[in-house]
From TrEMBL:
Lineage of producing organism: Eukaryota, Metazoa, Chordata, Craniata, Vertebrata
InterPro entries to which the protein is assigned, alphabetical: ADTRP_AIG1
Pfam family, one: Far-17a_AIG1
Organism of derivation: Jaculus jaculus (Lesser Egyptian jerboa)
Keyword terms: Membrane, Transmembrane, Transmembrane helix
Name assigned to this protein: Androgen-induced 1
Any one GO biological process: long-chain fatty acid catabolic process
Length: 191
């Protein structure tokens, strides 16, 4: 859902940019800047860290023991291409987006606070679902004890923070490298 919302915002931003380009309407320009800020914040705080986390953790657990994360029974209801749509294609699409559009990351403290808030909120939601239904959303949580779950949940939050920082560094590397290459091309050659 996060990826669908994020890429919907990307399409809306691109269309708005095309439609307002050169119009001279300050209100439209102001609204476009807000939309770009929303797109950048969503990539930095949600789409990149959650996307990389889902792909990485899902396939590691799947390789270890498929039944713990995606039981074979699900193959009867969810075709393989849809499984890859949810758990594989997220990563290349988010990397393509990061490479083709410059994104302004929020301040590090506000970005980390936002990803921590999301992580803790999501984990509380997972625990609430278990409390209400008696079933874990992710089957592997059934196989580890309370202490193991606490360690897993804490590790998850730390990993999400690390992935936020990785996204920040990667975005900076991509765009600082490109900017320095463009500046190098613009320099007059001295013979």
């Amino acid at each position: 859902v996060i990826q669908a919302v994020f890429f919907g915002i990307c399409v809306l931003t691109d269309l708005s940019s095309l439609l307002t380009r050169g119009s001279g309407n300050q209100e439209q320009e102001r609204q476009l800047k807000k939309l770009i800020s929303l797109r950048d914040w969503t990539l930095a705080v949600l789409a990149f860290p959650v996307g990389v986390f889902v792909v990485t953790v899902f396939w590691i657990i799947y390789a270890y023991d498929r039944e713990m994360i995606y039981p074979k029974l699900l193959d009867n209801f969810i075709p393989g291409w849809l499984n890859h749509g949810m758990h594989t294609t997220v990563l290349p699409f988010i990397l393509i987006e990061m490479r083709t559009s410059h994104h302004q990351y929020p301040s590090r403290s506000s970005g980390l606070a936002a990803i921590c808030t999301f992580s803790v909120g999501y984990l509380l939601w997972v625990c609430w679902i278990h409390h209400v239904t008696g079933m874990w959303v992710y089957p592997f949580l059934e196989h580890i004890g309370s202490g193991g779950r606490i360690i897993f949940f804490g590790s998850t939050t730390i990993l999400m923070n690390f992935l936020y920082l990785l996204g920040e560094v990667l975005n900076s590397y991509i765009w600082d490298t490109q900017r320095s290459m463009e500046e190098e091309k613009e320099k007059p050659k001295v013979e």
